[in-house]
Amino acid sequence: MRSGSGTTGPEAPDPPRVAWRKQMRESVLDEARVLAARNGWDRVSLSEAAARAEVSRPAVYKEFGSRSGLGEALVRRETTRFLQGIAEALGSPGRATAEAMQDAVEFALTEGARNPLIQGVVLAARRGSDGLLPFLTTRPEPVFGDAEQLIGAWLAERFPEHAPRARDEATDLVVRMTISHIVLPGPEPELTPGRLTRAVLAVLSGG
């Protein structure tokens, strides 16, 4: 509600039903995350996630639609948190472009190595089960689309004089290669952030 001075007061709390639904959704996602990290996505069922969250199975099906819908929601939530960290690294005050890019890649690789859900997905893939891996590597949403939008906007701010095609190619390179190194780290992983940063800058220098 607006006061006479035109300022906006605090937002009204959600109605009880909306608040319950939000809480239920987060609880189910929390439990699905624990199960996926512990046992792999292939062993996660909506029924078990619902039981652990102490909500009904029909409520979970109504919220997520299917097991695939639950998996996509889980990856999207994890992606949002992941990209927030990358955005903070890119936006560090006083950092040169190359330093900020290297910080962002280093954050992504470090988080990928320590995050139990990501590691659960990666280890399951190495054992021959793709589980949630398609959401992380081949489907355009949520990971690729959101990551490319973030990096692309940042490069546009840093390199407004470069051709959009060069920025798009640089964006695609750093996103795909970073995810690739999360899934399958290369030799001397401590050198990867610097190598990827130099590759991105080389692509931009040609544009």
In short:
The chain is an all-alpha fold and 207 residues long.
- The percent range for strand residues is under 5%
Shape: globular
Q: Please, how many helices?
A: 10
End-to-end distance, in Å? 50 Å
Question: What class do helices, strands and sheet pairing give?
Answer: mainly alpha
Number of strands: 0
Mean pLDDT: 85
Give, in order, the helices and strands. Answer: HHHHHHHHHH
Number of domains: 1
Protein name: TetR family transcriptional regulator
DNA-binding region: 45-64
Pfam families: TetR_C_35, TetR_N
Keywords: DNA-binding, Transcription, Transcription regulation
Structure keywords:
mainly alpha, Tetracycline Repressor, domain 2
Describe this protein's structure:
This protein is an all-alpha fold and 207 residues long. The chain has one domain: Tetracycline Repressor, domain 2. Helices cover 73% and strands 0% of the residues. It has ten helices and no strands. The longest helix is centred in the first third of the chain and has 24 residues, at 16-39. The protein is globular and about 55 Å long. The model has no long low-confidence stretch (mean pLDDT 85). InterPro entries: AlkX_C (IPR040611), Homeodomain-like_sf (IPR009057), HTH-type_TetR-like_transc_reg (IPR050109), HTH_TetR (IPR001647).
